[in-house]
Amino acid sequence: MNKKTACGALVMALAANSAAAHIPEWFELKPYVGADAQVRRMDFKGGFGDNLFQHHSPQGNVYAGLKLNSRVGIEFGYESTTTRIRAVTLGTGDLASGAPVSASASPVVFKSKAKIKGPHADLVGFYSFYEDSPLQLMASMGASFFKGTFERRTLQANGIPKSTVRTLSRHKILLRLGGGLQYMLDEHFGLRANIGWVGTGKMVLLVKDGLMPNAPTPELKPKNSTVYGLGGLWVF
Questions:
Q1: pLDDT, greater one: 207 or 183
Q2: 137 has which bridge partners?
């Protein structure tokens, strides 16, 4: 079972558990805020960014939520990766953003950087192992409203210094699924450990900036992301 299927099944199970709740419990509203330190793993398809960009990015996530009852909540947040930089040298026949490096240009030195950021919204389910348990199982399903910005700078081609910059950027609404554990140290402060899946494989990027009209159009094809995080929250 893959991560997407497993997270989806967990969300459905917690939603079914919530549906069995008594109606009065729906009015036990509890607002909360939190922040996570995370690491995003996002690979690329071969020749379409895998040999140009970093595959791991530290990122931060801040959020505010409203727990509707002991089983269901909604969250709104914002996450942003750090800007990761990678310098590489490619030779004849290597693919650079989908286009092969020609013998006349080889070797080519690229310096690339990437950043992903944007808000997200999630429906969150909680499951307690027993009544008043400080430890809860979590699952979430929602959407990320991402902007991905990727820059590829050519520093040198066939020994000749260059300064050509191609920027690829796109906004995209992406499915996100998550799961994890939440432990309340007291009635207000808690800790979270989570893992998430984001459909960044839908974020195909092209650039048509007119800088090099006779050259192939650069294209990036990210794969889906996995996000690992640790953080804390405060319940009001």
A1: 183
A2: 127, 181
**Mind spelling out the 3-state secondary structure of the chain?**
CCHHHHHHHHHHHHHHHHHCCCHHHHHCCEEEEEEEEEEEEEEECCCCCCCCCCCEEEEEEEEEEEECCCCEEEEEEEEEECCEEEEEEECCCCEECCEECCCCCCCEEEEEEEEEEEEEEEEEEEEECCCCCCEEEEEEEEEEEEEEEEEEEEEEECCEEEEEEEEEEEEEEEEEEEEEEEEECCCCEEEEEEEEEECHHHCCEECCCCCCCCCCCCEECEEEEEEEEEEEEEEC
> 89, 228, 219, 222: which is closest to 166 by C-alpha?
219
Domains of the chain are 3-21+29-235 (2.40.160.20)
Question: Could you tell me the CA-to-CA distances from 213 to 25, 48, 104, 209, 210 in Å, in that order?
Answer: 62, 20, 18, 8, 5
Place of tokens 């699952």: 139
Q: Is the model's pLDDT at 5 over the cut of 90?
A: no
Helix (H, G, I), strand (E, B) or coil at 131: coil
**CB of 47 within 8 A of CB of 41?**
no
25-55 pLDDT per residue, tens: 567 899 999 999 999 999 999 999 999 999 9
Its pTM stands at 0.83
